[in-house]
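Blinded run. Sample ID left blank on purpose so nobody reads anything into the name before looking at the predicted structure. Input follows.
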Amino acid sequence: DWSDADCTDAVFVGCTIEGAQFSETVLAGSKFKGCRIFGARFASANLRDAHFEDCQFAQGQHGPTFAHCGLDEVRFTRCDLSFARFERSSLYGAQFETCNLRGAAFVGADFSRAFGAVASDPLRGHLLK
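Blinded prediction complete.
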């Protein structure tokens, strides 16, 4: 159980992680190289600017789930993300380079970046000059 762990800028090389729960885990800036990450569920995790290289996530017809995650600027390079589910996650600037995304689902995923007034701003919804 990796819940609430702070692994900012951590480096993982050649590791195997199975059935892990990454709930509200901070993995911002982390690097994963040659890792096998099977049955993982990332829920409300911060993966901003993380880099996954040559990693395998799919095991049969099961892939990882990224639910309500911050994946801005994340990079996946030569990864098998077959059957991955990206649910209501922020993917602004995400890169998938030479990845297998067979059967992957992007449900309510957001690839945009919002600019403008904040919710507590009384001028919210009005154009600012």
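Unblinding after everyone has recorded impressions. The chain has no helices and twelve strands.
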